[in-house]
Amino acid sequence: MTRTRDGLIVLEPGGGDAFASMDVVRKSQAVDGDGRWGIVVVRGIPGEGGRTHVHDGEAEGFYVLEGEVEFLGSESVTAMTAGSFALVPPGTEHGIRIVGTDPAAWLAIWPTALDGFPEALERLEAHGATPAEIASLRAQHGIRPGRQR
User: Fold this and answer.
1) Euclidean distance between CA atoms 45 and 106, whole angstroms
2) By the number of CB atoms within 10 A of the CB, which of 7, 90, 124, 127 ranks highest?
3) With the C-alpha atoms ordered 45, 51, 57, 61, is the resulting torsion angle positive or negative?
4) Which residues contact 130 (CB under 8 A, 6 or more apart)?
5) Does 149 have pLDDT greater than 70?
6) pTM value?
7) Domain residue ranges of the chain, discontinuous segments joined by +
């Protein structure tokens, strides 16, 4: 990461904080900017995903970088490919399932409540966390479960 003389923050290709358990590279946290959103790049392989969730009070955005995904709502499934964007209003159930034959990647514009979530999840999983402990952590970071699809 480079901070320019005029205050810009620039990450080199591949830069950011990697979290292997989530296959996420965080580019910025909400606290790094004005406190309104963070940015991550998420990667996965076909068949992963399918669980929906809700963030009460905060929106989230997704921009597909590569591959094919299905964007899941509480009642809808929308095919998305590279260049597609989805905006999730606050309190709206959503999720992604990777489809097709190749890996997929997307840029996620995360709610502020997710600051610190990847680190906390990695710590829990390193100690063999129970599903109840992971569910509790998710709730602490404003993630309310939806459905498994």
Assistant:
1) 12
2) 124
3) positive
4) none
5) no
6) 0.90
7) 11-143
CATH code of domain 11-143? 2.60.120.10
Q: Is 83 exposed, middle or buried (0-12, 13-18, 19+ CB in 10 A)?
A: exposed
Measured distance CA(54)–CA(74) in Å, rounded: 10
Residue 13, token pair as written in the block: 């290709």
DSSP 97-135: EEESSS-EEEEEEE-GGGTTHHHHHHHHHHTT--HHHHH
Q: Which helix (H) or strand (E) holds 60?
A: strand 60-66
Residue 102: CB atoms within 10 A of its CB come to 11
**Tens-digit pLDDT profile for residues 24-80:** 999 999 998 888 999 999 999 999 998 899 998 899 999 999 999 999 999 999 999
With both helix axes pointing from N to C terminus, report the angle between 131-140 and 117-126 in degrees, rounded to the nearest 10.
170
